[in-house]
C-alpha cells in the first residue's frame, strides 16, 4: 500500500514512519524542507520524500496521485504566528483539494479531544480542521488524543522540567483540570491500526490511556516514580498570562507554545469511550508505565523524535537551504584555527557539543546568555539536544538550529535561534591536514546589530579561544 505521511519531520511522524515501513508499506514523506529529512537513514527503497508547503497551492502538485492512504499530521501550535488558526485552516483546505485529485481512499487525522462545550483556540482549531477535511471523495478517520506521554514529547518534557526543578510549586488553578494521558506507543498503534479499517471510515474516535488524572496528580505521580518529594499549592489568582510566563520561565517551551498550552489546560480532555481500543485489540498503557518507558528510552539514548525540533522562529520558515551558504559581505567574523591532536576525538567532541555536554568552555557564560535570551522571549539554552551523540540537519541544539551536519566531511554548521539584532552562524570543520576551523559569523541588522557585536567582543575572545582549545586537545 502506498501511504502519504505529512509532518514526517514532526514528533509523531518520526515515530510512525518506521512502523509503516516495517509493515511493508511504501511511504511518501511530505515535508516542508527536505534538508530537515535525512533519507539516508532509511535504506529501504520504500521511502521517498517530496517538499511541499501546504500554504502554497502551487507546490501541492508534487504529491503523487497514486496514493492509497494519507496521514494528516500538520498543526501550528508551536508557531510564533498569532493567527495560527487561519494557517491551519488554509493548510487543511489545500490538502483536501489535492487529495480529492488523487486516488486516496482514506485520510487519517490526529486531532484533539473536543468533548467540552467551551474549547481553547487550539482545540477549536483542531475541531475546525476535522470539519474541513471531511469529503465525499475519500473517507476520513479522526483520532482525538489529549496529553501524549513519551520520550521527547512536549507534555513529558514540561512535566519533567516542573518536577525536577521545583521542590515546591505555587501553581495555577488549571492544575485541577482533568485529562486522560496516552502513551506515544499507543498513539502509533492506533494510527497504524486504522489503516483501511472500513469500520473507522468517516468517524472520529477518542483515544487515551486507562487513567483519568488532574494535572496535579500527573505531577505528583511523576515525582513518585522519580523518587522525589514535591509540594504543590494551588492559587486561584494566577491569570492565564501569568500562568504562561510561569510555564515559559520554568520549562523549556517557547512563550507562544506556553500560551496555547495554558489555554488548552483549562479544558477537560477526557475520552467519551474506548471503543477503538477494543475494535483494534490495543491494550492502553497506564500513565506510570508510560513514564517508565519514556525514561528507558532516554537512558538508552533511543529518543527518536522531540517536540523541541519544531522550528521556533520566523527566519527559518523559508527553509534551511537558505542558510547553508554563510554570508561574507557586510558581516563580522571571528575565525579561529588550530591543529587538532586527534581528528577522531575532535569530531566526536563537535558532534556531542551542547546539551548536557556543554560548550567545552565557560558554560556559566553560555547559561547566562541563555537566561538573558529567555528574558526577552527567546528559546533560551534549556532545549538541549535530542540525542547526546547523534546530530542531523533540522535538530535543535540549545539556542541554535543545526543547518548542516556531515560527519564524513567533518563539518557542522549552526544557525542562531536566540533573540539577536541580526543573524548568526557558528561553524566547525576539520580539513584533511587536521586543522580545525571555528568560524562565528554575524550579519548585523542596523546600528544596534553593530553595537551588539562590539559589546560582545570581549566575551567572544574569551569563549571562542577556550572552546577551540578544548575541542582540539
Top keywords for this entry?
473 residues, 6-stranded antiparallel β-sheet, Alpha-D-Glucose-1,6-Bisphosphate, Chain A, domain 4, alpha/beta, Rossmann fold, 7-stranded parallel β-sheet, 13 helices, 21% strand, globular, 2 domains
Shape designation: globular
Q: What's the structural domain tally?
A: 2
CATH topology of the largest domain: Rossmann fold
Give the distance, in angstroms, between the N- and C-terminal Cα atoms: 52 Å
Strand order, main sheet: write it out.
3-2-1-4-5-6-11
The chain-level mean pLDDT equals 87
Name of the CATH class of the largest domain: Alpha Beta
Low-confidence stretches: none
CATH superfamily of the largest domain: NAD(P)-binding Rossmann-like Domain
Classify the helix fraction into a percent range: 25-40%
Per DSSP E runs of 2 or more residues, the count of β-strands stands at 19
Description:
With 473 residues, this protein is an alpha/beta fold. It folds into 2 domains: 2-300, Rossmann fold, CATH 3.40.50; 330-472, Alpha-D-Glucose-1,6-Bisphosphate, Chain A, domain 4 (2-Layer Sandwich), CATH 3.30.530. The chain is built from 13 helices and 19 strands. The protein has helices at residues 11-22, 84-99, 121-133, 154-165, 184-193, 215-225, 240-250, 255-265, 275-280, 287-299, 343-351, 363-375, 446-472; strands at residues 2-6, 26-31, 47-51, 69-72, 106-112, 139-145, 148-149, 168-172, 178-179, 182-183, 203-207, 213-214, 231-235, 332-339, 396-397, 400-406, 411-416, 422-430, 435-444. Helix 1 packs across helix 5 (184-193), helix 2 (84-99) packs parallel to helix 3 (121-133) and helix 4 (154-165) crosses helix 6 (215-225).
Amino acid at each position: 500500500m502506498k501511504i502519504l505521511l505529512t509532518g514526517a519531520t514532526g514528533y509523531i511522524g518520526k515515530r510512525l514512519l518506521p512502523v509503516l515501513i516495517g509493515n511493508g508499506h511504501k511511504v511518501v514523506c511530505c515535508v516542508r524542507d527536505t534538508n530537515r529529512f535525512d533519507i539516508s537513514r532509511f535504506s529501504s527503497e520504500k521511502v521517498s520524500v517530496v517538499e511541499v508547503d501546504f500554504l502554497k497551492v502551487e507546490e501541492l502538485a508534487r504529491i503523487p496521485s497514486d496514493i492509497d492512504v494519507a496521514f494528516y499530521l500538520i498543526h501550528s501550535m508551536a508557531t510564533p504566528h498569532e493567527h495560527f488558526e487561519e494557517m491551519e485552516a488554509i493548510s487543511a483546505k489545500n490538502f483536501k483539494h489535492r487529495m480529492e485529485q488523487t486516488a486516496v481512499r482514506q485520510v487519517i487525522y490526529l486531532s484533539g479531544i473536543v468533548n467540552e462545550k467551551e474549547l481553547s483556540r487550539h482545540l477549536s482549531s483542531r475541531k475546525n480542521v476535522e470539519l474541513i477535511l471531511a469529503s465525499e471523495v475519500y473517507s476520513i478517520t479522526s483520532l482525538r488524543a489529549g496529553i501524549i506521554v513519551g520520550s521527547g514529547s512536549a507534555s513529558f518534557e514540561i512535566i519533567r522540567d516542573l518536577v525536577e526543578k521545583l521542590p515546591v510549586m505555587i501553581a495555577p488553578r488549571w492544575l485541577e483540570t482533568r485529562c486522560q494521558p496516552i502513551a506515544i506507543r499507543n498513539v502509533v498503534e492506533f494510527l497504524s491500526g486504522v489503516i483501511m479499517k472500513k469500520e473507522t471510515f468517516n468517524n472520529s474516535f477518542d483515544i487515551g490511556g486507562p487513567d483519568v488524572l488532574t494535572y496535579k496528580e500527573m505531577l505528583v505521580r511523576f515525582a513518585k516514580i522519580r523518587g522525589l518529594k514535591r509540594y504543590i499549592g494551588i492559587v486561584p489568582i494566577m491569570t492565564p498570562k501569568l500562568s504562561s510566563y510561569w510555564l515559559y520561565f520554568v520549562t523549556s517551551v517557547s512563550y507562544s507554545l506556553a500560551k496555547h498550552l495554558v489555554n488548552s489546560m483549562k479544558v477537560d480532555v477526557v475520552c467519551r469511550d474506548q471503543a477503538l481500543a477494543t475494535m483494534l485489540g490495543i491494550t492502553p498503557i497506564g500513565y506510570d508505565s508510560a513514564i517508565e518507558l519514556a525514561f528507558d528510552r532516554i537512558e538508552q539514548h533511543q529518543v527518536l523524535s522531540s517536540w523541541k525540533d519544531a522550528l521556533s522562529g520566523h527566519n527559518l520558515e523559508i527553509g534551511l537551504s537558505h542558510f547553508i551558504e554563510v554570508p561574507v559581505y557586510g558581516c563580522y567574523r571571528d575565525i579561529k584555527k588550530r591543529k587538532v591532536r586527534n581528528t577522531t576525538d575532535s569530531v566526536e567532541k563537535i558532534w556531542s557539543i551542547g546539551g548536557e555536554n556543554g560548550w567545552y568552555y565557560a558554560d556559566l557564560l553560555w547559561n547566562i546568555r541563555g537566561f538573558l535570551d529567555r528574558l526577552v522571549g527567546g528559546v533560551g539554552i534549556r532545549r538541549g539536544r535530542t540525542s547526546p551523540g547523534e546530530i542531523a540537519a533540522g535538530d535543535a541544539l540549545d539556542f541554535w538550529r543545526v543547518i548542516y551536519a556531515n560527519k564524513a566531511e567533518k563539518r557542522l554548521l549552526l544557525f542562531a535561534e536566540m533573540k539577536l539584532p541580526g543573524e548568526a552562524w557558528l561553524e566547525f570543520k576539520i580539513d584533511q591536514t587536521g586543522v580545525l576551523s571555528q568560524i562565528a559569523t554575524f550579519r548585523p541588522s542596523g546600528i544596534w546589530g553593530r553595537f551588539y557585536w562590539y559589546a560582545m567582543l570581549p566575551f567572544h575572545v574569551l569563549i571562542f579561544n577556550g572552546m577551540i582549545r578544548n575541542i582540539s586537545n
